[in-house]
Amino acid sequence: MTGVDADGTPKLDWVGDNNRGSGMHPTHRMVENVFEELDAPGEWFYDKAAGKLYYRAPEGTDLTSARVETAERAELIRVEGESPEKPVRHLTFSGFTFTQTHRTLFTHPYEKLQLGDWAIARTGAVYLKNTAHVDVRNSLFDQVGGNAVFLDGHNDANTVSGNEFSHSGATDVAVIGSPDAVREPSTWDAMRRTITDTTPGPKSENHPRDITISGNHMHDNGQFEKQTSGVQISMSRRITVSGNTIHDGPRACVDINDGTWGGHLIENNDIFDCVKETSDHGPFNSWGRDRFWPLDADDATKKSYAKLDAMETTVIRHNRIRHSSAWDIDLDDGSSNYLIENNLLLNGGVKLREGFHRTVRNNIFVNGGGHFHVWYANTGDVVEKNLFVTDNPYDLIGVDMAKSRPVIDRNLFWNNGRPVPDINDAWRAQGLDTSSLTADPRFTGSNPFSDPAKLDYTVRTDSPALTLGFRNFPMTGFGVPGAPTPPPLEWRAAPADPYKSLAEPLLGATATQIHSDELKSSVGLTDYDGLALKAVPQDSYAFRQGLRVNDVIRGINGQHVGDRNSFWNVYHRIAAGGPVGLTVWRNQAAAEVTFSKPSGTATVNNTAGVTHTGSWGFSANRGVGDLADDVHYTTTDGAAATLTFHGTGVTVLGEKYSDQGDVEIFVDGVSQGLVDTTATERLAQAEIFAVSGLSAGEHSVRIVKRSGKYATLDGFRITG
User: Fold this and answer.
1) What number is the average pLDDT over the span 268-294?
2) C-alpha–C-alpha distance, residues 386 and 371, integer Å
3) Do 541 and 507 form a contact (C-beta atoms < 8 A)?
């Protein structure tokens, strides 16, 4: 807030650490340093012009003897060599307490980091640039206002080890190279769709390499900035993050902002209670939005370029990671050339979105699985010899396994003796998990389904996992000895809302609401608004008009689309041949698609803009031949369902069976009489009522239950 207009309206400027910016929160605002608000103990006001500090002391404070300390600097130690060729060498800072630096959120410029979501202030309580063999050890970073340690540009063989980082205003350790080291860099404001420089690797020496961050206890970072982490890596090479305990932060615990230039080692860490104030993120998070990702090119070309920046394999091994959402390890948007092995993944799993050359091997997934989103052709991915303790080992969104051709096999699945629905004949018919087993892994000690605090997942010598090639790895050696450990599991009991996840017909395609964090992430949204197109056959009207798989319809004819009804209530009122203008979210950017509403007869589901009054239930996955495999039903006489549409006729679809009765039909408010919906055999998608020859215009049809045990509604055929 920079001031107020003459009419008292606040002047607000966006300032922040998000690369792609963000709109104002719909309700929350934070304003500080307002003298009129100095009305509670512990509050203060600084009159900068007068040089006066006002403080309302807590009751009982003796200000005559109190010690008053204020922050005076944003940086406490700055070490900067002359150039990469003339660095400062061989310094060690050990045994210090670094504290009380200025908050940098509103006082420093923010630089956008490539195509990752992060923007940073290039400053820190300890700032290193053009250095080699400079170590920061055995120190306490207590409530620094911004980044704690910042390695900027050229830094070689430095170490940050044995420290405690507590309540940092931003990131604990940031390892950030210079954009001039990146060949053909892209930003969200200037994204390259073609490239000419196909030379692998960095362009200059202005980047960190061979840095070690080990044995640190990092907790409660991001007190002011939220796009922060325990360790943040960008435009760097061969960074080792080993043996740290990292917990309680607003975003990732460890973040790799881009694939430049790989070779990192993330091992022996204990990571938990992160992503507490944001969403669509993992405790370990990466992006691979490098030279290949934004190209207007086919998948084979992208694959040939994937290792231009991700030159060396990044290894994530022997970590214990616990998350309260969908994925512990989040390889997002093109993250390529990763080996993930020997990790204990609690309460989450691994997400692989786009990208190439990723191997997920010999990990233990507990209450989580593999989330495969939007894969390219011939990915080169391997998922093998893992142990999945869950009812849902695989979540596929926008993935064609025949096209992607991964190797997925020799995994063990266990759902405490219950079925694992993902592992079925159709899955194996694609050549996937043909040698895998569903069996008790025979853990030593307690059963995790009854002991959510279990942390030792060693399997016994008679475990069937061992016959598949799985090998035990140590259940010790995670993080800093004596530091806190992860909380118990939170077993997910309830499936997704079947109404929200229902796929319904739309212009020959199928659409669903944004019903899960996984789907929201796969399409790159920050909210749950819109209709996502799950399938768009090439012979469909939707495809011919320019809609594609994974498009999300966010607006129609200038009206915002939140849930499905907000779309259908507009669409149904458009005349056949009338203009339809859709705002579509595609490839993480807005696009416009316009076409004419088709004439003829359209079949829509019972979920498509129908208003229900009285008591109605919803039943999905019935398997009896319903349209979209679902119906609405009621047992209450007088309950009604109404559809408003533009057209010349309508047919009501329902169910006929012995437990049905009479329904009364109204067209434009006029009763058409009772209709008997009984039958000796169950008839799905039965025609309950039809009318034609209406004047072209807006009409309504209403169905009211009058007798019988049930009245069932399955959909409509609307004649334009």
Assistant:
1) 95
2) 14
3) yes
